[in-house]
């Protein structure tokens, strides 16, 4: 059945009165996305795994912008926690318009040196977490809502030591494309952002050499900032700007590792 498109001018050009869930939002890219959405008028659920004080600081920053926010502790790799995250969102805000699956982990090792424990941790957070939260959220996402999944430029331009991480993010990208088809009849858009080398705790965990590699790889000779990625997320999330985009993967990478086509 063909879904009638809403006139573009009828769609919002901001996120006023929208409800957004951002996983892994206590720091880095997730924090920047949560604050960006709030600056556009959204009420935000700030998910965190363990750093309560950092999450509460993000909530305070959102309140200072005049938006509502709550912090919800949940380990997205735990099925029950993921469901509770959605239930607490609905109990407080009554609906969901935007879901950002940002929570992730990077552990870089050559594949022959990757332990089973490390492999399972990467897949549990990056893949299982994306699935568990999305599955619980989908029945409640409003028409013209959106799901944004975070991937990585390594799926297009890998380098030594990222095989398992790339495996996890490749799964996220495939899931995004399939889900875009599945949810199109409800006018729900599903897209991916693939950050390049971004100045975050995840990147810094790889050491100074990885940060230097990122600067050299960028055509602009700098690392990306979390705010760079947040701007890409805002493009997808705002109903008007993202209206005709689904199943896409935006490389927010400063030209590092190639270009999107």
TrEMBL record:
Keyword terms, alphabetized: Oxidoreductase
GO function terms (MF aspect): oxidoreductase activity
InterPro entries reported in the protein's UniProt record: NAD(P)-bd_dom_sf, SDR_fam
Highest taxon of the lineage: Eukaryota
UniProt xrefs under NCBIfam families: PRK07231.1 (NF005559)
Family the entry assigns: Belongs to the short-chain dehydrogenases/reductases (SDR) family.
UniProt-recorded name of the protein: Short-chain dehydrogenase/reductase SDR
Source species of the chain: Rhizoclosmatium globosum
